[in-house]
Each structure stands twice: as structure tokens, then as C-alpha cells.
Specification:
A 5-stranded antiparallel β-sheet has the order 41-42-43-44-48, with no helix packed on it. Helices cover 2% and strands 46% of the residues. Among the domains are: 200 residues, 4 Propeller (Hemopexin); 138 residues, YVTN repeat-like/Quinoprotein amine dehydrogenase (Methylamine Dehydrogenase, Chain H). The chain has 712 residues and is an all-beta fold. Belongs to the CFAP43 family. One of its GO terms (cellular component) is axoneme. One of its GO terms (biological process) is cilium assembly.
Amino acid sequence: MAPPRKAPEDGKVDFHASFVPLSAPVCFVNNRTVCYAVADNVCLWNIEDGSRSYLHTTVYGITKLCCNAERGMVAFCEGGASPQVFVYSMEPKKLMFTISDVAELELADMAFSRCGSRLYVLSRATSKKLAVFSMQTGLRLKGCDLDLPLRFDKLSVYPGHKDHLALIRGSSVRIVTITKSFETYISRLQPPSIPADAELSVSAYAWTTSGHFLVATRQGSLCTLDGGTGVLLHVCQAERPITSITMTRSHLVTSHIGNNLSFWSYSPEALPAVTDEAVQEISGLSDAPAMSSAANGGVFKLNKVLDLESVSQSQRLGHRMLGQVACVQLNPGFSQAVLTTAEGEVWSLELPPKLNQEGGAFPTLDPTDDEEEEEDIYMRADQLQTQLLTWFHTHPVADIAILSNGSELKACASGDEGGRLRIWEASRGMDPKGFRMIRFASAITSLAPDAEGNMLLVGTDSGCVHLVRASPWRKAQIMDTQRVSEAGVAKLCCCATEDGLKVAALLFDNRIAFCRVNLSDGRVKMLGYVEALGNVEDIQFHDQGVAEGLFPEKLLVVGTAQEVTMLWAVRAPPTDHEPRSADLDRDVCPVWSTKLSGEKRLEDKPTAVCSLTKKSVVVGFAGGGVKSYPVPTFSGASTARQSAAMPQNSFVSVPCGQPVSCLRASTQGSALSLAFASMDGSVTQVSAMQGSEGELITRKALHSPYIGGASQ
């Protein structure tokens, strides 16, 4: 049974900016247009003029995507069990085929043939098989289904002949050949030729124009396989491990650890024939000759070296390339190179004409002038035209924040589980980089900006609270760091005071830590802990309806205590409080409570809270419900003498059945609205006027429910 569908309009929104992981290599749908998935939409991005258009789909999530530049086609696989593959043409935009029965759970990879007449599909869960589909009829080619003995992760089709392809996994490579027979095809998985006892970890691979398949390992070996039989023809050793391989019109290009790009002349005629005895002598990878030496048999000859580290050092700090180059590729017209780094940056690079000549030959430099060759082997920075195209997080994004003073959007901030904090322009401006990055030693868990967008608080899973000066965002820097607990920080929130900020941090052990930020000296001071009220799910300051000149005093808390769902209000310690012990007693931080439900049902568990008006708050539930309640007035955290409170209003007539992950109330003039996100991937906005029944303003399905939906 195929996964459920939605109307394309349900995911149609106006994207102001999108920074999502691009595949490596990136997918070109034509010579200048890159295609990638944005939530459950397909984005077509012209990298020359920066324009973007979107294909709004009917699926709830996209797991795999591939393109064909010859015919302008895009194929993508949906998430969920028994997924289907959808094939679209881009000019005009229309659905060509819907392909079923490709996998029980998950596809490993997809690829078109270069001519666009075939689509190859590799599944890895639960069955391990290769299937081939005709792009003339959309039907499976007879005889091409191939059951595989191992789980393979990638496939690579030989651009010169669609009947040859390679299957790659972390420790092995196998060649597949397809032969036309009477009214059917015969597919064959060629035997492995790399020694089984070799310590092999594949780091890069590529086809050559002569039909050979190159495989690089993390140990520094470069193996050349025959593209028809899979026989190992040649092995050499690179000076540094290779991270990526590609071909220009005339040269082989390799990227290496240390960010070196090497351009090689490649002579396939120097390789031994498949039947030669020289092939049989290759028994191991450890004693292979150096790639740049004459001992490799003349197969590879180094022509040019580009040190990207020196190029980066010549740039200003904010404009430098970050991270090791993980992938090098050329656009379909071979006119421009695209580099993807391990830090999620995508750069364009103009190739010198001498290294990208027409004709497919592999010329070498004039050997009669060794001095000139040695002098010119290193390329200069001024010979290149590098430009940052886009960037993305390389780890799951933990939180995002908008840096705004209420009327002007300054920038946005996002933090990931790899400890990277990026502060970036919401729309691309004159800055060629467009973002700044700060690294932390542990995973970022929460972000909390001040009301003016000048300061940003960053919480990590090591229990630290970092204060970042975010204005101007191009010169963002860490002002102070305070480790508030050995337990990690789960959620941060802050509110303004007369001379700074009041900060509340929900910890992994369910305690709540209060801090004070003095903006005059940029320091974070610890005030103390409120002992665990129960199993806390969310916190938020009660900042709606506060009179002008006053500041929020109460912190809203939702969770469960002794299997009873609860809403608490905790008075924050005064700004002049001087801590004498680690714990804040009830005289300093009094607590009020409200029992939300008397029944022990999972769907009634509170998951999110926010302030709505001066006298009411909104609570989101695990079942998708969103309801408003009075601010707690019952003194104490105990629930023994309380009855369940009646909600003032319900903003969802039919709950989605998935937990509400985030709540935000906003005011525009006299209109009060409420926005909330759920783990089904939907983002909903409703009217929240007093006495209103929660009239729906908009509802969009944006994120995949198969990977957690919308979290912020």
C-alpha cells in the first residue's frame, strides 16, 4: 500500500530563503539549473541569476532525488513504506510516470542514464535488488531485475554506455553489465576483483571517458577497474587520500585531504589488457607505486596543482572556504566546476581553458621544457573565479531563531547537533558569503534571542549557556560562557529587564536554572535552580499583556507530575537577587499550578506552552490539540486538592493525532493570532481573538512526518 497523499496546494508557500542539504554531487537538470528537495517540494535553482521556482508535490516527504540534463527530467522517491517514484519533465512541468514496487521500505539510490532513456533504482530495505525502468514507457525492463548478495549504497552509470554501471558500498565495488537478448535483457553482476583481504574503504569513484571505473580508498589507493568485466587493471598510491574524482573534457581531477586539487593527464592505452599477465600480478594494494611517479606505468601524469587552502587564506576571514572539499563535479556542459565542502558550502569554480579542452583527448604538457613545467605546475589564486553558491547544515538542525527588533528583520540564526551556529541573511544581499559561523565544542540544543535581535543565547548539551553578540551579524562573537549544570540544556528562553536579560534554562534532569545577563558588561550570572516540578516538556515566559514599562515575572511550565498533566507558573527571581545557595526556595520563586486533565491518556500529555494574553496561556498536546487555560492561581506545585481545569477555548476542531512541537502567539494591530507546528509536518495559523473559536487562517504541510515533522 502506497503512502498517503496530499493536495499540491497544501505545501505551496512563498519561500524567502531555503538552506537544505544538497546531494553530493549536486543534481543538474540542465547546464545552469540545480534541483534539490525543499521540505516536500522540489526547488529548481538557476545558479547563474539566482532565480528559483518550485514544483509542489503530492507527497509528504522526499528521500531520494536525481536528474537528467539531456531531457530535463527529475525523479524523486517519497518517504514511507512501499514508496513510489515520480518522474517529472521540467519543460513543461508535468508528471510523466509514477513507478511502484521499487522497495518495501527504503531506496538506496537512483540514477538516470546520460541519454535519459533509463532510470536505475537500487533498493536496500528490506530486499536488496537493482531494477531498471524505461523512460519511454515507464515500465520495468524485462530481465533487468537483479537480486544482490550485499547491501549497496550507491550506483554510478557509465555516461558512454547505459549497459554498464557500478554498484558501490563502503568496502566493495561491483560492475553490472546488461546485454540485449530476444525480447528481453540479461543482467549480470560481475565478480569482485579487488582482493578480499584488502583493507578497503571507498572514498571516491568516477567513470573515465575510456570506460574504466576509478575507485579511490581512504587509505590513499587509486584502483582502475575494467568497466565491462570489473577486473582490476591498475593500482597506484596517491600522496594524500582522495576525497573526490571527476573528469573535465581533457583531464582527470582529484581532490585530496588538505584541500589540494590535482589535474592529471590520463593515458588509458598504458593500462594492461584484461587478458594480460600484468593484471594477474596485482595481488594487493599496499605495495602500489606512487600516482605521480613514472613507476605507475605512465597511466597518470600530474599537470597542475591547486592549493585551495592558500586560495582561502588569501581571502578575507568572512569570505574563506570552510572545510575539506568532499565533492568535485562539473556541470553537464563541462564549463564550470562545483565544489561541496564538509562544512556544507557549495562553491563554483571557473576552470582554466588549458585544463578543459575540447575533443576528449588527454594532452600532456610539453616535456621538452622541464623548468617551465615545474614553474607552472602550481596554479595561482588569481587564475580562479570562486563564488559561494549556497550553504547548508551538515548535522540535524536543533533550533532556529529570528533576529528582529519587531519591525525590521535583521538576520536569522540556526544551530545544529554538530555544534555549528550560523547567523545568516534571510534574503541574499550584497555580502558574497551571506552568513557567519561559530563553532562550539558540543551539540547545540536551543537558541533564544533578545527582543531587539542584538543578543543571542545558545544552549548546549554539555550544560553551557553562551552569550553571543549578534549585532552586527557579520561580526558576531561570543561574549561570555557559563556552565550552569552537568546536565545538558534542553530549552532556553529569555525576557527583558531594566538593565539586561532574565534567562530560564530547562535542563535534561528537569530542573530549571535561572540566570541574569547584564548587558553593560556582557556577563552571564547564575541565580540558582528550581527543583524538578515533574517531567517538564516546555517552558516559556508569560510576556503577553505586560503593561508598558513593566517586565515579565512568571515562567510558564508544562509537563507531568505523578502521571498527572500539569501547567505551572513560576515567579522568576528578582534581578537584584544575590544567590546564597544553589537552590531557589519558594520564598524567592513561588509556584502556582493547574491540573490540566484528570484522565491518564497519552493524547492529553502537554508538549508545548506559550503566553496568549495577560490572563490566559495556550497549551499544545501530544494528540494534536491546542487549548487555552487561565494563568495558574493555585499556590504550590501539589495536585492533591485540585480538580482538572476547564479549557477556555479549543483552537483545533479535529486534532491531527501528532504532538504539537511549537507554539507562537503574535499580534498585528488589534488582531491576535496563534501559530503552531506539529510532528506531522504541518504549520497552522488560527485566529486567537477573545471569544473566537479558533478560525483557521492557513494550514500548510511543509516537513516530512517520517523524520519528525516540524520541530520549531
